[in-house]
User: Which sequence fits this backbone?
């Protein structure tokens, strides 16, 4: 590829990056303004950074409660997803057992069911289990929603790992569980990071099911909580709402930055193997 093509690709990626980053940058800028500055113009920069907007959002209008609820739900769902999806993906990729393909496609079949169709049955089931207004009412449906896609991604990764690794473990006297934990999982760090990022992003930003299954304001997740704050904008003002949005968005950015190395390795490995 010559220099002109490199330059064209760089400019294209630069434009794409700016378009992607601009909305978050705009929200962060508004979060540091006074209410008067925001109402005067949404295109200017603040004359002085107003960190008080974050203090108001965090302590005075209850964002801290919503934040902690989302942390608990996101962490629990992500751990649950990684453990069960990784185990299932390894089993479907490397182990032989009766009706393996049938069970695999039964799990994948969940992707064909529109979310709107299962909301009512899921609500009735959660209600019957007396889990309404509890965090487990969010954790298990979120796990069920992520599992099929996570299984597809993780199974493809494990399938590409050489069978010789398993044979070597057996020769050393390792049991199947030991082979998975001691040999396969360390190699699968990139796909584990990918599962963690995708699961946490989906859970952190989910709104509809959290709105339906949680009516107690003290148990709102951050997505529902920010919507509730936005409904009271005449009381709290606009800028604390932007501060809340900034906190919510930056959490996902931080998670990605912490795991980007393994995530990129996973994408690169998939590209090479594909």
Assistant:
């Amino acid at each position: 590829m010559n220099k002109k093509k490199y330059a064209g690709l760089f400019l294209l990626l630069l434009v794409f990056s700016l378009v992607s980053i601009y909305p978050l940058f705009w929200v962060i800028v508004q979060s540091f303004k006074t209410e008067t500055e925001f109402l005067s113009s949404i295109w200017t920069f603040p004359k002085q950074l107003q960190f008080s907007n974050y203090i108001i959002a965090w302590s005075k209008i209850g964002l801290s409660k919503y934040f902690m609820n989302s942390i608990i739900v996101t962490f629990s769902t992500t751990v649950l997803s990684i453990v069960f999806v990784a185990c299932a993906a390894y089993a479907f990729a490397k182990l032989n057992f009766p009706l393996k393909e049938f069970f695999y496609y039964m799990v994948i079949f969940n992707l064909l069911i529109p979310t709107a169709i299962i909301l009512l049955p899921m609500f009735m089931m959660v209600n019957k289990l007396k889990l309404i207004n509890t965090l487990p009412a969010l954790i298990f449906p979120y796990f069920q929603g992520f599992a099929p896609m996570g299984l597809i991604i993780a199974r493809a990764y494990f399938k590409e790992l050489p069978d010789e690794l398993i044979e070597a473990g057996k020769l050393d006297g390792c049991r199947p569980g030991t082979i998975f934990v001691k040999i396969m999982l360390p190699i699968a760090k990139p796909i584990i990071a990918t599962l963690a990022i995708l699961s946490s992003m989906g859970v952190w930003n989910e709104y509809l099911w959290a709105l339906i299954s949680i009516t107690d304001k003290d148990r709102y997740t951050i997505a529902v909580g920010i919507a509730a704050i936005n409904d009271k904008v005449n009381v709290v003002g606009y800028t604390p709402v932007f501060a809340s949005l900034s906190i919510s968005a930056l959490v996902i950015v931080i998670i990605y930055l912490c795991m980007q190395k393994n995530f990129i390795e996973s994408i690169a490995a998939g590209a090479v193997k594909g």
